[in-house]
Amino acid sequence: MMLLAFNSFLVAMLSVPVVTVISRRWTKARALPAALLMGSLVIGTAVAAVGFWRGQRFQVDICQVASFSFALSLDRLSAFFLLLICSVSLPVILFSSSYIPRHYSGARRHWLWVLLPLFLTSMVLVVTASTPFAFLFGWELMTLFSAGLIVIDGDSEQRRHNIFIYLVMMHAGAAAVIGAFLLFLPHASNFAQMRASAALMSPLLRTAVFLLAFAGFGTKAGIVPLHLWLPRAHPIAPSPVSALMSGVMLKTAVYGLVRFAFDFLGSGPSWWGYLVLFAGAVSGLLGVLYAIGEHDLKRLLAYHSVENIGIIYLGLGSALMFTANHSSVWAALALTAALLHCLNHAIFKSLLFLGAGAISDAAHTLDLEELGGLQKRMPLTGTVFLIACCSIVGLPLFNGFVSEWLTFRSFLAGSEMTNLSAAIVLPLAAGVLALIGGLAAACFAKVYGVGFLGRPRSGEAGRANEVSLPMQAGMGALATACVVIGIFPGLVLRSLGALTEELLPGAALPPAATSLTVVLPWIALFVLVLVGGFAGFKRAKKLTATWACGLPGLDERMQYTSTAFSKPLRRVFSRAYRAERTLEVVPGDPPYFPVSISYRSVRTTSFEKFLYRPGVDAIVTAALRLRRLQTGNIQIYLLYIFAALIALLMFMRWA
Amino acid sequence: MTLMTNVLQVLLLILLAPLVRGVISRIKARIQNRRGASVWRPYTDVLKLFRKQDLVPASASFVFRLAPMVVFTTTLVVAAFVPLLHGSALLGVTGDFVLLVYLLALGRFFLMLGAMDGGSSFGGMGASREALVSTLAEAPFLLALMSVAIAAHTASIAGMVQWTMGQNFFQFSAVHALAFAALVLVAIAETGRIPVDNPTTHLELTMIHEAMVLEYSGPSLALIEWASAIKLTVVMALLIALFVPWGMASSVSALALGVASLVMLLKIAALVLALALVECSVAKLRMYLVPDFLGVASALAILAVVFTALMR
């Protein structure tokens, strides 16, 4: 039954592009691709939900030729990520069903409906693959289809450059992933065999596998300093695609790392844990600091993806440290925290990007300095955006808090470890997480406060109107999920506990994890009753003008801007930014009244300058040197062949 | 009976909070050679504001009026976390320190949003400054509580208090002095007292909290004022409960609770006096020195965690 449903899900997904192409001239069938895609995603969600909650497994063999064997299977881990992909894409597609026709016409619209289902299918392949070939097949397609989706939005010189960086970094990452798989050869052609052979590997080889997987998946996940592509590629895609890339695609990288580190390798030395924890802390802090400095909404959100991947890595790192110290119960807690944060981030980040799409649809700009007052003009979009902001900040009663709380609890449990340095490092990591949380709160107070509250800062923002119904419905569904998981986390926690028990044998979720599920609904009820009571007890309200110290002429330009809001924090953390400022003053006559003053502040991340630039330069120099071999002279080439032959013969003789 | 005591604790915290504020300003006035207002003044202020009209800027959205309610409600929930008279609280067992810190953050987040909804530059200015202070205060707050949690082997506030009550006062770990010092500094920042923020100023160069609530009036302002009074008292009660809980009732009987209330009143009075003295003898810090102030708090909290883990 499950198998049949899964196969029909795959077939339905793949049929969407075909239907789009066939029905492209038929104007009555405009909504057909979206409807078909949503229908197939419903099937996918159902399959994944049964697989996740009931733990049913199955396997689909597609090709059994050795070394190209292609098989898909569903275990609890795959089912969890499949559920994440399908259930989050469903509202995103609902949103797109109205967003795409409004913004794209003709061939570009058809291309979107052809590439979107293919992109989703490739992600499904990645998380359900049970052979290296199937995994890598999906992994590569995922990169290419997402790059294709970005190209649809236009291809100026700047965009091409960004897409180029995206593709180069993705392929470097894929090379590392392929390397990690190759180290399992020649004995392992599917995941089950890899699991068995990993146990027999030498420690050195296991470390090599882990490091390759860490680097390869880290590139896709966007951990600092491998995040360079993320703030370039995510903001320039169409908003629903950004939602899928940030919300969903990044999680396939986390899936890969969990599959390698916890499923194949099982456990390792504790420095693996330190490495992941450190990467998480650096990504979390720098991600949120860079986000605070942005005022382009989508770039800001892209940096927040770096931050949230950092939080997920903090959980994963602490889980690895616990497994290294043989306390698998607490490892289960930390792993649950990381996986739940994957789901939560998928929900609220997609919602935020859809919100950004709604803003650009209504106000035609994503520059926070030009927005303001949108809450009154777009009540539903504003409210769901507020819910998403509260969730990403990790405030109680919203879903982000639950996973951050679990991470904090695992850090506290770290102090019980016998290994002294781990018992000190893990509790201190809580301080880092708290700082990240505080900075995120500042950043989203800025985003929501400047974007949606106060008075409109531009005519466009003042004329914005609420978006169409399907767009509202898509965002509303995601916002509901944020609140439901935030108040009743028990709904997912139990099954996640079963999942971690599968990965870490004998590790049931500790009872400490359940105290939150008891107290949150009560707090929610109390808050609801009290706030409802206050709101019901309506005192006379009088509309007035904003207090302007008794002077006339307070206008919207006098409000705090996004740049002004973040100034104190940027000043305190100025080391992280290294802004290059230039001030040009053209003096007038007399010189005290300059004719013009221009001020420019450019923040080049130091990674570009100090880490990537020398590497790129070295590669280019090496390539130029190598070019000297290519003289174009046929005699020289004959000489090369002769030399190669001699070398081979000598190799055969002595090897 | 235990449940009733727990409810009573919350009610005491809520109802006595304005008095604590009144006493502080009265003592400060006396130190500064002024007569000062009556200690009941905060009560009459709140009552007066509740009877007034709510003035709302025409450009503001529902967030403007929602924010004070959220601030007040979250502060009430936090009040239910803290043991006052005996080693338990309404939410003290299931409610842990992470939830406590983040509930306060929830209220603050909405207050910042409410401030920005007013549409004047003061609101944004206050919110921006509050963002700086609260961001830097969160990590030391959490770490200081964490060090006590590590020592007590529990995350729940009531559990920590019961553990401390079981310790001998004279052998009490020196590590706690570090955590206590860190929490005191954080508490000053968190409740917006001198030297981080001055609750009596209305000068735009210096105000933080007052700039955020400048646009509020009537019942909304009453909720905010009352909530900040409760917050001050709750933070004091938290400091007492975590570090000097001795004297709390070990059994729930009328006599024990009576004695415990007296002891608690004395402790709070001592803290109030100390706060008033500090506020009269220290000047407010320049805003860009506040990060240094909180940096000291962070360093103390980090040391507290490291030493607790070492001495475990």
In terms of DSSP E residues, the strand content of chain A is under 5%
Radius of gyration of chain A: 27 Å
Terminus-to-terminus distance of chain B: 36 Å
The low-pLDDT segments of chain B are none
Strands ordered across the widest β-sheet of chain A? 1-2
Could you explain the architecture of this structure?
The complex is a heterodimer of chains A (655) and B (312). Chain A has 25 helices and five strands. By secondary structure, chain A is mainly alpha-helical. Among the domains of chain A are: 191 residues, no CATH class; 49 residues. Chain A is globular, with a radius of gyration of 27 Å. Chain B has one domain. The two termini of chain B are 36 Å apart. The interface between A and B is large, with 81 and 87 residues.
What's this, in brief?
Chain A is mainly α. Chain A has helices at residues 2-22, 32-54, 76-103, 106-128, 132-151, 157-182, 191-200, 203-221, 230-233, 239-264, 270-292, 297-324, 328-363, 374-377, 379-393, 399-414, 420-452, 459-462, 469-487, 490-503, 515-536, 562-572, 574-577, 606-627, 634-654; strands at 58-63, 70-74, 541-544, 579-586, 596-603.
Features:
heterodimer; A: 655 residues; mainly alpha; two-stranded antiparallel sheet; two-stranded antiparallel ribbon; B: 312 residues
How are the SSEs ordered, and which strands pair?
The complex is a heterodimer of chains A (655) and B (312).
Chain A: H1 2-22, H2 32-54, E1 58-63, E2 70-74, H3 76-103, H4 106-128, H5 132-151, H6 157-182, H7 191-200, H8 203-221, H9 230-233, H10 239-264, H11 270-292, H12 297-324, H13 328-363, H14 374-377, H15 379-393, H16 399-414, H17 420-452, H18 459-462, H19 469-487, H20 490-503, H21 515-536, E3 541-544, H22 562-572, H23 574-577, E4 579-586, E5 596-603, H24 606-627, H25 634-654
Antiparallel strand pairs in A: 1-2, 4-5
Chain B: H1 2-31, H2 41-51, E1 54-57, H3 62-79, H4 97-117, H5 121-152, H6 157-166, H7 175-190, H8 209-212, H9 218-243, H10 254-281, H11 290-311
Helix pairs in contact in B: 1-9, 1-10, 2-9, 3-4, 3-9, 4-5, 5-6, 5-7, 5-11, 7-9, 7-11, 9-10
